[in-house]
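Q: What would this chain look like folded?
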Amino acid sequence: MLRPHEITTEFGRRMYLFLFVLTVACTVAFQGWAIMCTNFAVDMVGLNAAQLGIIQSVREVPGLLTALVIALLYLVREETLAAFAVLALGLGVLFTGLFPSYGGMLATTLLLSTGFHFFEANNQSLILQAYDSRVTPLVMGRLRGLTAGGNLLAGVLILGCSSLFGLPQMYLIVGGLASCAALYALFRRPDCSALPKQRAGVVLKSRYWLFYALTMLAGARRQIFTVFSLLLLVERFEYSITNISILFIINNAISWFLNPLIGKAINAWGERRLLTLEYLFVLGIFSGYALLDNHLLICVLYVVDQIVFNFGIAVRTFFQKIAAPEDIAPSMAVSVTINHIAAVGVPAVGGMLWLIDYSIPFWMGAGLALVSLLFVQYIGRELRRERAAA
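A: My prediction, written as structure tokens:
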């Protein structure tokens, strides 16, 4: 496993520790919100599947606007923007508990989602700029492990506090912790002035077509997993907040151990093989969601789904190998926007289709997995083309 002292430069170590703090804060806040969201929306606010789908679609709107990060970088440096983004996320989670209404959830979801997506763009960009192609997958894998650890912490925190506090109070606790961590990181940020100067403006190049396609498909697939797998457990199997918290704890305990191995797998097997394995699993998982009627089997599928989703870091390491160094920051911002083009519509459409038959959104996900499986077979060709042009 990668450790900070194994990174050979002082700047690399400072960057790693900076991203460590922000990643854990971002994860605890967003995962805490996600764990409680469905129960909060259904039990306290009284929303139906269609309204919950709209809220989840609103959550993805800032992802479409992440290209604005490029404009903000004219005003502040990437590392500063990353810390402010996590602060916005923490405040959005904190305010969720204070406004238990449909309108309140729409507004606070928009705020926290803006922070989450802007941090996602900056986080990926800083990693790709700060480390070489050998170290990058190891750092990404390790931070994914920390994400699972943060998810585990959120699950334990909510499970432990659920008997002492109501959902609004738990939102205050989780959001407040993340906000404090973001302020700490803001004053401990590394100096990134030595990194390659990034290209100004939006970058869209035909040579990156496969990266764009895989990014868009991953965004749509993620929404079906995020929204409808948990809704299946809450609505169809009547899972409580305690049941969901226990599932999250089990899931993230496994992911905490396995995620750091993903970076080593990328270096050993290559991006194409790992992504092929991911989408073969996803095809079976979504079919299982649609067909199975056993809640324990659904929980197993949920855990496996979350593990193989993290194989998606191979899409970014593939991009690093074909990208010009000056294209990384604007391309990461654009990629988050592309990721959300399909994601904005999928929860709302899926929520309406759910009212007809709950299995329809999952068959949509199986179709997306099949298309993705076909696209990843082009990775080897694109890498060979890039090497030939170099």
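The chain has one domain: 4-389.
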